[in-house]
């Protein structure tokens, strides 16, 4: 429960100028909207606001700026870096009601949506025209477009389509002072100086609040083949990836997970593995094949050369969904069956094998009793390293150990030219480690931007950097 109180003048302005259902201080709502998928920080917001329009967001932020009321923007709250956590008495600004989706422009292949539109709803909205916004991940049924943009989300299709920022043509953003910016509209080309969209994409709501976006669309892919392979270890995962790069297939996704991840999924979801014999690692591959005979010959060669120990190809859409469920249920299952300490890191693909070998040596030598659940988007160099809390260790002690271990892991990340956050952002969880990825000069530039755009430090304060 927060001990921070909102100024009386601020509350009077809200009561006089906004709908009666605009603001809530109901304890259950505060607990719900004050947190994201992380469970490290207790939610402690002062209130939650539910605007319906950009105009309401603009007037609210002008009031917050004048009264120095801190604001935490909130979307689907599916992040894993505590970027949407209100732990210090902030006002949560929920975009949940701002979920309008405009008609699809089938000539320009674009669609304008409000920030609260759910990712999967956008997919369905566009699919009837044979188009898609190709940003896709396990949380697509809950995540919001605004949050995807604010964190420059990645997901399972980056290997083919790239990151969120590549699929955003225009943004409507409200500044800390309440000014509304229209950035780039629906233009493909606009060579008129610095692209201000990019200041806000990936900034986690610390520089402005995204309220609407014009999204770039592409054609729905052709028939996708979904494969699941069993391989002995991470080195074999990487060997198979090198082969897949030169296969007669157009890769859409190349995902992997370890046997420990599969065990947690089976414990929580009771899903069945298609393989009788266990294996150290599994690869889920989705690809568009143009020559069935060539694909079949390639698959046969994988077994002949010992690159895989087992494998299956989905024979129907329902089987493809079942195979994907083994991968997409991992995060949910880890949280449901224990307390995971999560790290979302990225490495140059060429450095993955060396990094994973050194990381295994580190955990084996320093923390041999820890269960490490490793999975990720190998095709774009993104690893999710999950350390499960042992049942015999108290939470506080476990977090203290993982905090120290993170310094060593991030030193390895830096050694191999990687990033401490691939797709979930910095938020509160990664803030103390940002120097492992960013230089002092870069950090000072980030602070300069924060001071310039948010002089009263009201927008998601305490996240990423302090001004």
TrEMBL record:
FAD-binding PCMH-type domain span: 41-220
UniProt entry tagged with the keyword Oxidoreductase: yes
Known cofactor(s): FAD
Pfam family, one: FAD_binding_4
Keywords: FAD, Flavoprotein, Oxidoreductase
Keyword check for Oxidoreductase: yes
PANTHER family to which the protein is assigned, alphabetical: D-2-HYDROXYGLUTARATE DEHYDROGENASE, MITOCHONDRIAL
Family: Belongs to the FAD-binding oxidoreductase/transferase type 4 family.
Protein name, entry field: FAD-binding oxidoreductase
Organism: Hyalangium rubrum
Source lineage: Bacteria, Pseudomonadati, Myxococcota, Myxococcia, Myxococcales
């Amino acid at each position: 429960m927060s001990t921070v109180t909102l100024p009386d003048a601020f509350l009077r302005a809200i009561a006089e100028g906004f709908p009666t259902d605009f603001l809530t201080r109901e304890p259950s709502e505060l607990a719900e909207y004050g947190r994201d998928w992380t469970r490290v920080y207790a939610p402690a917001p002062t209130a939650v606001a539910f605007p319906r329009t950009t105009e309401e967001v603009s007037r609210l932020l002008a009031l917050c700026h004048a009264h120095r009321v801190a604001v935490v923007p909130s979307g689907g709250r599916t992040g894993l870096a505590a970027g949407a956590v209100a732990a210090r008495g902030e006002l949560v600004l929920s975009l949940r009601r701002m979920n309008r989706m405009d008609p699809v422009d089938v000539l320009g292949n674009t669609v304008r949506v409000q920030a609260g539109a759910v990712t999967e709803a956008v997919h369905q909205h566009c699919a009837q025209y044979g188009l898609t916004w190709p940003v896709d991940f396990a949380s697509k049924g809950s995540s919001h477009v605004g949050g995807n943009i604010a964190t420059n989300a990645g997901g399972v299709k980056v290997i083919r389509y790239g990151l969120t920022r590549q699929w955003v043509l225009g943004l409507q953003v409200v500044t800390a002072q309440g000014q509304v910016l229209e950035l780039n509209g629906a233009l493909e080309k606009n060579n008129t100086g610095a692209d201000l969209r990019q200041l806000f994409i990936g900034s986690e709501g610390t520089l402005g609040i995204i309220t609407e976006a014009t999204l770039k669309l592409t054609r729905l892919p052709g028939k996708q083949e979904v494969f699941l392979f069993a391989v002995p270890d991470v080195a074999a995962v990487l060997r198979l990836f090198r082969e897949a790069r030169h296969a007669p297939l157009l890769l859409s996704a190349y995902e992997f997970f370890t046997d420990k991840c599969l065990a947690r999924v089976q414990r929580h979801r009771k899903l069945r593995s298609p393989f009788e014999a266990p294996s150290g690692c599994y690869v889920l591959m989705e690809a568009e094949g143009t020559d069935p005979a060539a694909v079949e010959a390639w698959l046969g060669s994988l077994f002949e050369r010992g690159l895989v120990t087992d494998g299956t190809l989905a024979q129907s859409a329902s089987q493809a969904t079942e195979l994907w469920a083994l991968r997409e249920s991992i995060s949910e299952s880890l949280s449901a069956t224990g307390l995971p300490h999560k790290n979302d890191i990225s490495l140059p693909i060429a450095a993955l094998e060396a990094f994973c070998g050194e990381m295994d040596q580190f955990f084996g030598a320093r923390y041999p009793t820890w269960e490490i659940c490793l999975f990720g988007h190998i095709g774009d160099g993104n690893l999710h390293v999950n350390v499960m809390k042992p049942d015999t260790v108290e939470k506080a002690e476990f977090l203290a150990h993982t905090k120290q271990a993170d310094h060593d892991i991030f030193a390895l990340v830096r050694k191999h030219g990687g990033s401490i956050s691939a797709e979930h952002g910095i938020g509160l969880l990664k803030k103390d480690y940002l120097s492992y990825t960013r230089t002092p000069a870069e950090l000072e530039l980030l602070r300069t931007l924060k001071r310039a755009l948010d002089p009263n430090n009201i927008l998601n304060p305490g996240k990423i950097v302090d001004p």
